[in-house]
Amino acid sequence: MISATLRPEGWTKVERPASLFRRFEFASYREARGFLDRLARLSEATGLYPDLSFGKTYVNVTVCGSDTETLGDQAQEFAVSAAALASPDAD
């Protein structure tokens, strides 16, 4: 369990609305696409679907809290898991 006062490493905490943001950079479209596929599986497993924007070699991920005021453990745990999936070896 992650404390609601902590911010997962590499993520920017946004106060309003309560969310975490991170940009992931990749060397190729193939790596970025692989990350998106892994994120999709994580979302299906957790029921948490972040806001995504992406281009050829990057993916921006915004994980929102359960409401506009708080960022719960589930969102923070998702952020930690998502960061682990950014490695091409995560498959």
Short description:
The chain is an alpha+beta fold and 91 residues long. Helix content is 33%, strand content 24%. The protein has a single domain (18-90), classed as Transcriptional coactivator/pterin dehydratase (Gyrase A, domain 2, 2-Layer Sandwich).
Structure commentary:
The chain is of the alpha+beta class. It has one domain: Transcriptional coactivator/pterin dehydratase (Gyrase A, domain 2, 2-Layer Sandwich), CATH 3.30.1360.20. It has two helices and four strands; from the N terminus they run ββαββα. The protein has helices spanning 29-46, 73-84, and strands at residues 12-14, 19-25, 51-55, 58-64. The protein has a four-stranded antiparallel sheet with strand order 1-2-4-3, covered by helices on one side. β3 and β4 form a beta hairpin. α1 packs antiparallel against α2 (73-84). The chain is globular. 19% of the residues are buried.
Taken together, the total number of domains comes to 1
Strand content: 15-25%
CATH topology: Gyrase A, domain 2
Largest sheet: 4 strands, antiparallel
Distance between the termini: 24 Å
Low-confidence stretches: 1-5
Based on CA inertia axes, which overall geometry fits?
Answer: globular
Total number of helical segments? 2
**Mean model confidence by pLDDT:** 87
Assign the structural class, choosing from mainly alpha, mainly beta, alpha/beta, alpha+beta, or little secondary structure: alpha+beta
CATH architecture: 2-Layer Sandwich
| Share of helix, binned | 25-40%
Q: Let me know the CATH homologous superfamily.
A: Transcriptional coactivator/pterin dehydratase
Calculate Rg over CA atoms.
13 Å
Helix and strand pattern: EEHEEH
Top-tier CATH class: Alpha Beta
Please count the beta strands (DSSP E, at least 2 residues each): 4
Strand order of the largest sheet: 1-2-4-3
